[in-house]
TrEMBL record:
It comes from the Bacteria. One of its GO terms (molecular function) is UDP-N-acetylmuramoylalanine-D-glutamate ligase activity. This is UDP-N-acetylmuramoylalanine--D-glutamate ligase. GO terms for cellular component: cytoplasm. ATP binds at residues 124-130.
Length: 459
């Protein structure tokens, strides 16, 4: 890393545009690599400590960077800034950039300029990763030249720089969408809109919904919007917007003319590019929420004119992603399920809804202003005990003290697993589905899930 005057020369040396990247995670480092390849002068700035792997990559590519600070005298000279989705709009450096009129964009927006690949973009409060992974699996098995990126896998920008894909399946969060302007989805998939991350949206559901609906911006009549017709917020948002893309709804509650619907345990997919039907017991992913995810992926596959045999085969042999309702073991007749990726109440609702045994539920972590009301009915029906895993469990106790016989506090994955094992009996399920972020006791939800699985193995 260079310091002082050497760095400030970045903004003035040479003729190339000066791009600054804020946040040196997977997306930021990938954006820096692509920018360098496109002839930009590049500077990467991270307000926290950088991962050694990313430092090494930037050094290998001869890209200047800093950590534990934002040097405003450099950053505010940028022609354009690529911002990590984790940095909020109200961060001081972002406010200063906006005040100066310097464009602040996402890695997806930046990378989209440098590829002609078809974009299949998947967003929603829940099910994004599963649906993106399943869609990628379908396309890859059909022989398409396809990349998987966004909130999942290697950064989109890095893949645009290093590979030549014809299609990309992108898992896109609301934070990414907030900084996307010219980018266009050829196929936009909107799974659902339920309260999440409201702290970033002034605690207003409409603001969060508006963010999700940015997935359809710039779409034309040649493009597709695939959406859940059973999701109240999504339907409300569609009804108040002029949508030019072809609309393909999916529903398990009613028949649709085009899109997908469920009838007597059979899914029917109907599109202008062909139809498909298959029984839900043929699907690798079980549970009501996964019928929705499979419908969204199946419609996408038909729009791309994949063969029905390939779709059926892929839908049947797909292996679910790690930390999403992942089977973690069976000890003394007790099943252990790792759903650490459930970082909001709605995800935990889906997990509980798919359980057909008595449950010992492991809940807790960093509460993002959760409203636990929607879980109460399912907890009463299915949960015999709650094991809290977090530093502050007060709100969980308050929410469920009248609904379960026992709520206990634990402060490590090992302790939580031991306690849950003692509270469960043969035939029960121990479900880690925390409904909260993990940062109080763990590095991230993956760390939480892996510690849970390791603790199960130790029993």
């Amino acid at each position: 890393m260079e310091t002082g005057n050497q760095i400030s020369e970045l903004a003035t040396a040479g003729n190339g545009k000066f791009l600054c990247v804020l946040g040196a995670g997977e997306s930021g480092v990938g954006a820096a690599f692509l920018a360098r390849k496109q002839g930009f002068k590049v500077f990467v700035s991270d307000f926290g400590q950088m991962n050694e792997k990313y430092k090494q990559q930037l050094q290998d590519w001869n890209i200047d960077f800093e950590e534990n600070q934002h040097s405003e005298e450099i950053i505010l000279q940028a022609d354009e800034v690529v911002k990590s989705p984790g940095i909020p709009e109200k961060a001081p450096i972002v406010k200063k950039l906006k005040a100066k009129g310097i464009p602040v964009i996402s890695e997806i927006e930046f990378a989209g300029r440098y590829t002609k690949a078809k974009m299949i973009c998947i967003t929603g409060s829940n099910g994004k990763t599963t649906t993106a992974s399943l869609t990628y699996h379908l396309l890859k098995k059909a022989g398409l030249n396809v990349g998987l990126a966004g909130n999942i896998g290697k950064s989109f920008a890095y893949q645009v720089a290093a590979e030549k894909y014809d299609h990309f399946v992108l898992e896109i969060s609301s934070f990414m969408l907030d900084d996307m302007y010219q980018f266009k989805a050829d196929i936009a998939v909107l799974l659902n809109i339920t309260p999440d991350h409201l702290d970033r949206y002034e605690y207003k559901m409409d603001n969060y919904a508006d963010s999700k609906f940015r997935i359809i911006q710039n779409q034309t009549g040649a493009d597709y919007l695939i959406y859940c017709a059973d999701d109240e917020e999504t339907v409300k948002g569609i009804n108040k917007r002029k949508i030019t893309a072809k609309k393909l709804p999916f529903s398990i509650q009613k028949k649709v003319e085009q899109g997908a619907y469920l009838s007597d345990d059979e899914i029917f997919i109907l599109t202008d590019k062909g139809d498909l039907n298959m029984y839900i017991n043929e699907l690798a992913l079980q549970g009501k929420h996964n019928i929705y995810n499979s419908m969204a992926s199946g419609i996408t596959a038909k729009v791309l004119e994949l063969r029905n045999e390939t779709i059926r085969e892929s839908m049947g042999d797909f292996k679910n992603i790690e930390h999403r309702l992942e089977h973690a073991g069976n000890i003394a007749g007790i099943s252990f399920i790792n759903d650490s990726k459930a970082t909001n109440v709605n995800s935990t609702w889906y997990a509980l809804e798919s359980m057909n045994t008595d449950v010992v539920l492991i809940l807790g972590g960093v509460d993002k202003g959760n409203d636990y009301t929607m879980l109460k009915e399912l907890v009463k029906q299915k949960v015999k005990a709650i094991v809290c895993l977090g530093k502050d469990n007060k709100r969980i106790h308050e929410a469920f003290e009248d609904d379960v016989e026992m709520i206990v506090n634990t402060f490590s994955a090992a302790e939580a697993v031991q306690m849950a094992y003692h509270l469960a009996k043969k035939g029960d399920t121990v479900l880690l589905s925390p409904a909260c972020a993990s940062f109080d006791l763990f590095k991230n939800y993956e760390d939480r899930g892996r510690q849970f699985k390791a603790a199960v193995k130790e029993l």
